[in-house]
Amino acid sequence: xxxxxxxxxxxxxxxxxxxxxxxxxxxxxxxxxxxxxxxxxxxxxxxxxxxxxxxxxxxxxxxxxxxxxxxxxxxxxxxxxxxxxxxxxxxxxxxxxxxxxxxxxxxxxxxxxxxxxxxxxxxxxxxxxxxxxxxxxxxxxxxxxxxxxxxxxxxxxxxxxxxxxxxxxxxxxxxxxxxxxxxxxxxxxxxxxxxxxxxxxxxxxxxxxxxxxxxxxxxxxxxxxxxxxxxxxxxxxxxxxxxxxxxxxxxxxxxxxxxxxxxxxxxxxxxxxxxxxxxxxxxxxxxxxxxx
Amino acid sequence: xxxxxxxxxxxxxxxxxxxxxxxxxxxxxxxxxxxxxxxxxxxxxxxxxxxxxxxxxxxxxxxxxxxxxxxxxxxxxxxxxxxxxxxxxxxxxxxxxxxxxxxxxxxxxxxxxxxxxxxxxxxxxxxxxxxxxxxxxxxxxxxxxxxxxxxxxxxxxxxxxxxxxxxxxxxxxxxxxxxxxxxxxxxxxxxxxxxxxxxxxxxxxxxxxxxxxxxxxxxxxxxxxxxxxxxxxxx
Lengths: 292, 235
Ligand SMILES: Nc1ncnc2c1ncn2[C@@H]1O[C@H](COP(=O)(O)OP(=O)(O)O)[C@@H](O)[C@H]1O
Ligand SMILES: [Mg+2]
What we know:
heterodimer, A: two-stranded antiparallel sheet, 73% helix, B: 10 strands, binds magnesium ion
């Protein structure tokens, strides 16, 4: 039982990282129906920015987090403007292929500048841990979960209470109707990329802390898993991405803890296949409404 | 108020609007009637800026709008209530109305205007927190009209507000349109329900396969034998 709870604790911290990445996938999908394959690489770059800040300056966790988020915001907005916006009226497959191209571009540009080797993240927190019976919760896990939860609350606030958030929801549902309200669709799409990328940047720093190591291809696997998380929760659905991320994180740690960590990744993709067969719209997804 | 000169619109190779010329004076209800596929929706979408014209121009009080993007046209006083209502189904009635006022900054008077909409459409007031997608067709149409008014337009473009509604509701919607007009908003009304539209319109245009083929006062057109035959089901 204790081992089970311990795995849940580990799963929640890993899952909250997946959830942050999944949120970006889901928001971007919601607004331009694009599976942004470059999203995992933005997260990788966030991890490197965090690494650079904490290694080469005296700044601590929070400044590193803010700088990584800011850097990724800028990057995400530029990618959207340069690579996706010119294709606004092209077929979805053309945009998808472009996204894959952007992904490779980011991975190998990064490799060119920082080298392919794995780097280890400086440890930012005390080794202190809290024991609850046999369950151990360490400082890193607490920071990871608290950061993720704070960002998700912030996102809920933005999406539901601010004008820009309402514009995002309106554009996601109906671009023409949104324009008739006076909403600038391009600005709103930029803003969505900004938030999604900022969250990916935060996730990058958190994962650096969690796994202690980063490399230029680190975005691929978590990117795919976060994508599965988004599909699991119902792509386009924000609470769905949160639940999906946590679910995948917990599932992964349970599979590693009880079975074999070799099956960890396979289990995630098996889940994807099961969702696509049983409920392709995901846990919280709706069947798409036909427009009259 | 609104003036459209020699407007041409293409969808790829389809020539959807052919030299459309029409005008709407301040305070009028003008209706544009025609069969399904004639080009009514295309006309309204071009006025509101969702579609770009290939040639011709659109003037609002003398100001040329032809190349402005849709949001700027809303700012200048054009508001379109689209065909099929297109309310935001996963937002509440209240949020839908707020979005209608997206470009306005006067928070206090937005609140006041929403209350006024609730006075005009009490059923919406009762359901202010309800998700708009759960409203009935008639209620959704009222919401779409209310939302369209929230930008305080000079001219309201209505695209088939009677579509899919029971006759009693159609009557009610048309009464509402007349009230809105009496309160000072100019209206361009697109309809397939020609007899209803002509009964409240000051002037009317008839559009056929992308061209204006007839125009006159509402009364004249109601009596015209051509219109009787083609649109009013008379002999
Ligand atoms: N998005 C589009 N792409 C291609 N053709 C279109 C499109 N929208 C409308 N059309 C065509 O343009 C013509 C006018 O359509 P529309 O303006 O919707 O007519 P109405 O509103 O009078 O029923 C029709 O022949 C229609 O098939
Ligand atoms: Mg139409």
